[in-house]
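Memo to structure team: turn this sequence into structure tokens by end of day. - J.P.
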Amino acid sequence: MLRKKHHGHDAELLLFIAHAHFSDGRHRDALKSLSKALHIDPSDCRLWLNVASVEYEFAAFIFNREQSIASDMVMADMEAARDYVTTALKILNWLLERKKAMDGDKKRRDGRLEVI
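Reply from structure team:
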């Protein structure tokens, strides 16, 4: 039903869907929805922050779950979890740098306005 209504072109709705998946513990589905949303609006920092949060939480889930499955699978999951954390940290650092740059631009503009 949702596909018929928005045809995958509504980033806000995809973010809502990602939150529903995340709340249900479906991390991969949440990441897929967020990825689609980022294709629509790659400049939306909220989407990037959500990707980082889901990846970090997914990695924590993988690290903390019971290790009752085959050891090859455990190693592959651990490596994926490490990659999720690495990507999440890169995204968070990028967002921080972007915020600092925006704050610097605002201060420069505010400074010019005070001089005039």
